[in-house]
Amino acid sequence: MRVICWKTTWLSIQTMELFDNLMDSLSGQSYGVIDSFLTSEEINGLVINLRKRHAAGSFKEAGIGQGSGQHIQVLVRGDQILWLEEFSVVEIEQVYYKKINALIQSLNQSCYLGLKDFEFHYALYPIGAFYKRHLDRFKTDSHRKISVVCYLNEDWQATDGGELVIYLPNKPPVKISPVGGRLVCFEADILEHEVLPATHERLSLTGWLKTY
Ligand code: OGA
Ligand code: MN
């Protein structure tokens, strides 16, 4: 297990503001969005890596559930995934991990969440694939505190579909377009959500911030 180090990370004022807004939103309504969490170059680097690994056949159909209870069910979810190494040697993945570490440090300092670890996978939704309404936290795994989805779709248009729909208690659902560089965080054990089908391949880095 990787334990988040506590050495000070210097953040720009702009980044601190983005993180502050995200934390306000997370504590107020259990979800938050940061646009442009990644630069175009970072998106590009991650997409190149994703495509290379996908072409090499490293992606697997995503399953539902955990361990031996896991089964593939395309009627529920149609994405293909590849887990990132915990201690990745891929430079662009290290850049991403660094940003996530900074986010975790901010969340721990302001919200006392006690986050200690994270896990991420690449996800590729082929055209028309979806993920039906669900909750992320497994019954057998209560360590996933915050779900984090970062989109890698440059030039995504509103008409391309593929929205993440978040179901809020006593409010209309929120639809979020998977625009490149956008980061969405939500409380893993509280908010049900779904992924709508898209007219293009839909790419993301999806993961969880965990208590251990
Ligand atoms: C998931 C998920 C949301 C998205 O992988 O569990 O809900 O927008 N992803 O990709
Ligand atoms: Mn989910």
TrEMBL record:
Every Fe2OG dioxygenase domain range: 111-211
Keywords assigned: Dioxygenase, Iron, Metal-binding, Oxidoreductase, Vitamin C
Cross-referenced InterPro entries: HIF_prolyl_hydroxylases (IPR051559), Oxoglu/Fe-dep_dioxygenase_dom (IPR005123), Pro_4_hyd_alph (IPR006620), Pro_4_hyd_alph_FE2OG_OXY (IPR044862)
Cofactor requirement: L-ascorbate
GO biological-process terms attached to the record: cellular response to hypoxia
Any single Pfam family the record assigns to this protein: 2OG-FeII_Oxy_3
Domain of life: Bacteria
Molecular functions (GO terms): ferrous iron binding; L-ascorbic acid binding; peptidyl-proline dioxygenase activity
Protein name: Oxidoreductase
